[in-house]
Write a structure and sequence with these properties.
Layout: H1 13-18, H2 21-25, H3 31-36, H4 40-54, H5 62-76, H6 79-91, H7 96-100, H8 113-125, H9 134-143, H10 146-169, H11 175-184
C-alpha cells in the first residue's frame, strides 16, 4: 500500500475533468493525481502546471520533453516516474531506437547533439548538489533559445516535484506504466521497487 490511499477518479469532478489530459499522455489517470485529490486544490494546480509545462511552444518536442523527464527521474531514482516518462515518450512518438537506447543517449547515434545537450542539462539540473555550469549553458545555447531552455527546465522542475512526491508516497504503479518500463528499461535492471503496492 502507498503511504496515502489514492481516491476514486470520481472523487472530485473538477480534477476528473482536468485529468482527461493524462488519458492522452499515459492512457490512464496516474495514482499520484488520485492521491493528490485528498486536497483537490493541489491536484488541480498540479494538472494545470503539467499541461503548461508540456505545451510545445518551440522546437522542444513532446517526445524530447518526456525523455528529459526520464533522465531527471533516473538521476533521482524514482522508478515510478521513470516508467511514466518512458511510457509517455513512447506514446508521443519517440523513435524506437531512442527508446531502446535511452541509457546510452550520450554516445548512441540515435541522439543528436542538440538532444544530448538537453538531456545532459536534465541530468545536471536534477542532481544534488546541482551540476548546471558554464559548460552546460554554452552547449544549450549552441542549439536552443531561451524560451526553449525555460520549457526544458519546466519539465525538469515538474519532475523534481513528482520524483519527491512518488518516491515518498510509494505510489503504486499502474500496469501500463509497468509494461513500458519492462520493455525499455528492464534490461538495465528497472523494477517496481517500493511502487509495487506492498511497501508501507
Amino acid at each position: 500500500m502507498a503511504l496515502v490511499t489514492p481516491l476514486d477518479p470520481n472523487h472530485d469532478p473538477e480534477t476528473k475533468e482536468l485529468a482527461a489530459f493524462f488519458n492522452e499522455t499515459l492512457g490512464f489517470c496516474p495514482n499520484s493525481v488520485l492521491t493528490m485529490q485528498h486536497r483537490p486544490a493541489i491536484s488541480k494546480a498540479f494538472i494545470n502546471l503539467n499541461k503548461a509545462v508540456m505545451a510545445n511552444e518551440g522546437r522542444v518536442t513532446s517526445a524530447l520533453k518526456r525523455m528529459i523527464a526520464w533522465v531527471s527521474s533516473n538521476a533521482t531514482g524514482c522508478r515510478y516516474c521513470q516508467a511514466h516518462a518512458i511510457r509517455a515518450a513512447e506514446r508521443y512518438g519517440a523513435e524506437q531506437e531512442q527508446l531502446d537506447n535511452i541509457w546510452e543517449y550520450r554516445t548512441h547515434s540515435a541522439f543528436s547533439d542538440a538532444e544530448r545537450a538537453a538531456l545532459d542539462f536534465s541530468l545536471q539540473a536534477s542532481q544534488v548538489p546541482n551540476g548546471v555550469d558554464a559548460e552546460i549553458k554554452e552547449r544549450l545555447y549552441q542549439h536552443w533559445n531561451e524560451g526553449e531552455i525555460v520549457e526544458m527546465l519546466g519539465v525538469i522542475s515538474l519532475f523534481g516535484y513528482l520524483n519527491r512526491w512518488n518516491d515518498s508516497m510509494g505510489t503504486s504503479i499502474e500496469t501500463g506504466a509497468v509494461d513500458s518500463a519492462d520493455q525499455y528499461l528492464g534490461k538495465h535492471g528497472w523494477e517496481k521497487g517500493k511502487h509495487d503496492g506492498s511497501v508501507y
